[in-house]
Amino acid sequence: MIHARRPAVVLAAALTVLATATGCGSSSGGDTASVPAQPKPSGGISDFPKSAGHTLAELQARLPAGPVFAPTVSVLRAGTDRVGFGLFDVAHKQIAGAAAALYVANADGSKMRGPYIARSESLAVKPAFESRTTAQDPDAAKAVYVADVPFPRKGRYAVLAVVRVDGRLLATSGFTLSVGAKGALPPGPGDRAPRVHTPTLASVGGDAAKITTRNPPDLPLLKTDLASVLGKRPVVLTFATPQLCVSRVCGPVVDVAEQVASEFSGRVTFIHNEIYNENDTSKGFRPQVRAYRLPTEPWTFVIDRHGRVSAAIEGALSVGELKRAVAKVAGT
């Protein structure tokens, strides 16, 4: 809805076209005082085909056709990037927890590299933090795969996933991703976070419905104006619109932010900013969205106490991912 070319819309299209019914269920969490270790990927490099000397087309020809591959990222920079994606089977269900790996090649499929092993990240939160917005949305995303992929230079790359389902290796269709896309990019790690005022409960006279579409309102994330704390303490700034999100990811992401906020209370400030003026898609984007140059939603920025971006995460993320990112700035 923000930009027609975004892969987040591709994910939404996959959800819509496949008529998937993947409600985000609740699950109990672990020790809230601890920071979870990064989950181990399912499978190892030896479980997937070698890439040396092969093209992407040759890899696809060797394996049966598999799930739909739906990237959840649109902004990539030269270097090692976090590539998030969803997988959907022929029965129109989202696949979670499978062994999966990404392969990357030049845009024409030559010089293939990989496999880059992906880990499956659940979007589930503790029951106390699951919103009705998420629970009642049959298309809400429930998981995301994440792989760390090196992109040596700017340009266009062909990407596909190989997935092990029921003991068989399957190849998804290919997808093209742009690294170092033209135009102004959102702030990335090391950049100064733009200082903008964000709306708060106080600024709207306590009427939460004016500044959040989540049900129930995420009140702990609506108390602080970013401009008042930026450069003074660590901040997590989440841009998302749970009720109006095209990709069906925003609801779970705000749920994740609220749970993690409860675990870092007093150490890190968490802020949620909606996408559309007056929460109306016809009234354009809020000024904060424009200031951060967002081509998609949702986005989560983890900012250190000096006002610099430590992590910029596009799309879906898990409680574990956010806790690990926040832990890096919580003590600085």
Automatic annotation (TrEMBL):
Keywords: Signal
N-terminal signal peptide: 1-21
Segments forming domain Thioredoxin: 187-331
Skewed-composition ranges (Low complexity): 24-34
Region (Disordered): 24-49
The name this protein goes by in its record: Thioredoxin domain-containing protein
Organism of derivation: Paraconexibacter antarcticus
